[in-house]
Amino acid sequence: xxxxxxxxxxxxxxxYVVGFKAKSHLSDEGDQEKILFLKExxxxxxxxxxxxxxxxxKNGNFIKYRNFSKLENRGMHFQLFEEIFSSFDVPESPLVCxxxxxxxxxxxxx
Length: 110
Prior knowledge:
Blueprint: E1 3-13, E2 16-27, H1 31-47, E3 50-53, H2 65-73, H3 82-87, E4 96-102, E5 105-106
Parallel strand pairs: 1-4
Antiparallel strand pairs: 1-2, 2-3, 4-5
C-alpha cells in the first residue's frame, strides 16, 4: 500500500530556524528503504520543496536550533510540523526524514 512520506528541511541561519521546507513522495517499500530513498533525494528535494513558515517564540523571534533539538530529543518536534502534515496526505504517524540546511547547505547524515 502506498504511503506518503516526507523530506522535511530546517532552514537554519545564524543558529536560528528561519523556515521549513517539505517535499512528499509515495512509497510502498519498507521503512528502511523509505529512509534511504528520502536521504538520496534530499538535495534535489530541497530545491523543489514547498516553503512553510518557521515557528516563533512568545516574543515573535525565530527559535534557536538548540531549542528545536531539545524538542526533538523529547519527541515533541512533530508538533512544529502540523502545518506541513496537514498540507500533505500523511498517515497519523508519518515517516519523515528531517534534514538541516545551514546557511543554504543541505547537511545529509549518511
